[in-house]
Amino acid sequence: QSFNIAVIAGDGIGKEVMPEALRALQVAAERFNINLNYTPIEWASCDYYQQHGQMMPDDWKAQLSGMDAILFGAAGWPETVPDHISLWGSLLKFRREFDQYINLRPVRLFEGVPCPLAGRKAGDIDFYVVRENTEGEYTNLGGRIFEGTEREVVIQESVFTRYGTDRVLKYAFELAQSRARNHLTVATKSNGIAISMPWWDERADAMAAHYPDISIDKQHIDILSARFVLQPDRFDVVVASNLFGDILSDLGPACTGTIGLAPSANLNPEGLFPSLFEPVHGSAPDIYGQNIANPVAMIWSAALMLNFLGCTEAHDAMLNAIETVLAKGPRTPDLGGTASTTEMGEAIAALI
Ligand code: NAI
Ligand code: MG
């Protein structure tokens, strides 16, 4: 197998954790006979912005379109470029224009990772959040009138299409089908948001009819959030709209320890466009330059990429190595250890 991978380290610790993902990938690729052709990309970074006045060249889409996947570190350097410019100028363009309509985030509690929730041990928490990534509450439809006056009015619309909703539900049902518990939780708020959310529930019921082997429950987003903290063991796959999924997919990993562990995949499951794999965390200016960033989120994201490309054995080997190093060390300071980014990355690569 041979794949073309665009490698965008981006800003801050993106530049420190990306080499560790490439180190792990190289070992996995050799062991499982996978040919990875990398195209390193300097843009989609705030350094590039400072030189060119934009985050990416005009032909960015043409440059990336032929890739099988994009491996992404982090974008953002608030000291030089405002965050809405760096994010809308890079990552959000990829998500929208490459129709990466699934944002997939695994939530798992590992041995050796201090859990902020009392009484939970490794294995108790193991689920996926599937977030709709292209429509819903995140639109530019709306505006302000009477600005700055007492009569100021602000409107921002949500957009839910049948096409967009059904495809994310279908993906979530199929993911649930591939797992042992065959359970899907549907995030809703049909009591309060009385037009779009009852409709979202109807679409979930319609899809459920095609998957009789999957049990589903619908939960309002408020109590669902509480249960992430109080009863995280009851979840298997959780599907949510763009906004609800955004919040849940930060809350989930937060319940399992440090943000330095959480990976994510932005998927165009049909492969019409490249999918993008990135850690949940950002560029972490507060720790950049010290070589202490936890490389696991980036390495796990690289493993998700191999899984998506069909290299499941390589994915499993990478994940096993991560699991062992988390349990036995070396660990970076966010996990209570003293190891550097490089030391932890080397230990994981050695185990693969
Ligand atoms: P952040 O995720 O960069 O950092 C939050 C906190 O977590 C910091 O204290 C940081 O030191 C810590 N942290 C993050 N990753 C870590 C790791 N691998 N190991 C150990 N500790 C880690 O979020 P923040 O500070 O809100 O944003 C910084 C910049 O990153 C901003 O410009 C923001 O827009 C951007 N950002 C980019 C994202 C992306 O590219 N997907 C996602 C989130 C933020
Ligand atoms: Mg978020």
What does this structure look like?
This is D-malate dehydrogenase (decarboxylating). Pfam families: Iso_dh. It is an enzyme of class 1 (oxidoreductase). It comes from Nitrincola iocasae. Its cofactor is Mg(2+); Mn(2+). This protein has 352 residues and is of the alpha/beta class. It has two domains: 1-102 and 260-352, 3-Layer(aba) Sandwich (Isopropylmalate Dehydrogenase); 126-255, 3-Layer(aba) Sandwich (Isopropylmalate Dehydrogenase). It is 39% helix and 20% strand. It is built from twelve helices and twelve strands. The strands form two sheets. The protein has a ten-stranded mixed sheet with strand order 2-1-3-12-11-4-5-10-8-9, with helices on both faces. Helix 1 (14-31) packs across helix 10 and helix 8 runs parallel beside helix 9 (242-254). The longest helix has 18 residues, at 14-31. Bound molecules: 1,4-dihydronicotinamide adenine dinucleotide (NAI) and magnesium ion.
CATH third-tier fold name of the largest domain = Isopropylmalate Dehydrogenase
- Helical fraction equals 25-40%
Helix tally equals 12
Q: What is the number of beta strands?
A: 12
- Which architecture of the largest domain per CATH? 3-Layer(aba) Sandwich
Structural domain count: 2
